């Protein structure tokens, strides 16, 4: 899978060299390319922002560097896929083949585990990290002429820019890309994969600082253990995140 990131802080993404995702990149499972938006500027100060039309506080990111950078990435990716052949594809197939361009934004739809599962299946995602008060609206419209565009938020709070959000999204979908996590079974019994929070976990010693591991986990009775864990998931979800429960379980 190919991932392009456009940012004014390319050094921020050195974090992707470490841990599980660093390994996935080394193994060639995820090809991450980071682009400095300022490389597409022409003035001495490498300016990427300007004052907002209509007034107001803060600065808005100018459209030209974005247009040039995204065009170059999409042209390059189209080259990688080769010239269109003579094979007949219907409209739906053509639409699906367009790359996905994601702009992290607190004004976007909320990123969830379902989003992560969907992104893990994409052959190519471009992330555009905005800073300041946002990006000129026409960049989204113009990009949508050749790609699928999504504005995606991590949740209801404000970050200074998209870099942390993109890192979180890549971490969430990257581990779902086949081959990235060694034991795929470890992916299924996690918070949110079945719509519930995960059950509590214990390891040795069986007694620590006067605290015992629940008896059922030492019983070797697999059905009872599974039932206990499911009950713990329901109890925890009901207590901490009741809005996640389907109505019949609430
Ligand atoms: Cl995706 N971007 C920014 N700037 N702030 C956020 C966010 C994204 N998600 C939550 N807050």
Automatic annotation (TrEMBL):
GO terms for molecular function: tRNA (guanine(37)-N1)-methyltransferase activity. One of its GO terms (biological process) is tRNA N1-guanine methylation. The keyword Kinase does not apply. Coiled coil: none annotated. InterPro entries: Alpha/beta_knot_MTases, tRNA_m1G_MeTrfase_C_sf, tRNA_m1G_MeTrfase_TrmD, tRNA_m1G_MTases_N, tRNA_MeTrfase_TRMD/TRM10. One of its GO terms (cellular component) is cytosol. S-adenosyl-L-methionine binds at residues 130, 154-159. It is found in: Cytoplasm. Keywords: Cytoplasm, Methyltransferase, S-adenosyl-L-methionine, Transferase, tRNA processing. It catalyses: guanosine(37) in tRNA + S-adenosyl-L-methionine = N(1)-methylguanosine(37) in tRNA + S-adenosyl-L-homocysteine + H(+). It is an enzyme of class 2 (transferase). Its EC number is 2.1.1.228. The keyword RNA-binding does not apply. It comes from the Bacteria. Homodimer. Specifically methylates guanosine-37 in various tRNAs. HAMAP family: TrmD (MF_00605). This is tRNA (guanine-N(1)-)-methyltransferase. It comes from Pseudoclavibacter terrae.
């Amino acid at each position: 899978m190919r991932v392009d990131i456009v940012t004014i802080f390319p050094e921020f993404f050195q974090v992707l060299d470490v841990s599980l995702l660093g390994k996935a990149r080394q193994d060639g499972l995820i090809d991450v390319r980071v682009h400095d938006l300022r490389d597409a500027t022409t003035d001495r100060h490498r300016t990427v922002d300007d004052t907002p039309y209509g007034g107001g506080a803060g600065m808005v990111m100018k459209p030209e560097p974005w247009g040039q950078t995204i065009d170059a990435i999409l042209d390059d990716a189209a080259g990688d896929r080769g010239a269109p052949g003579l094979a007949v594809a219907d409209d739906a197939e053509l639409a699906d083949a367009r790359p996905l361009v994601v702009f992290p934004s607190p004004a976007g739809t909320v990123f969830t585990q379902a989003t992560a599962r969907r992104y893990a299946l994409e052959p190519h995602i471009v992330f555009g990290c905005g800073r300041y008060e946002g990006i000129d609206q026409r960049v989204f419209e113009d990009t949508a002429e050749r790609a699928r565009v999504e504005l995606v938020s991590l949740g209801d709070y404000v970050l200074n820019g998209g870099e942390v959000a993109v890192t979180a999204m890549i971490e969430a979908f990257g581990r779902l890309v086949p081959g990235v996590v060694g034991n795929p079974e470890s992916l299924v019994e996690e918070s949110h994969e079945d719509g519930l929070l995960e059950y509590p976990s214990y390891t040795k010693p069986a007694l620590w600082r006067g605290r015992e591991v629940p008896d059922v986990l030492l019983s070797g009775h697999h059905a009872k253990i599974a039932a206990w864990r499911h009950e713990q998931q329901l109890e925890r979800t009901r207590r901490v995140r009741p809005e996640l429960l389907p109505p019949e379980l609430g």
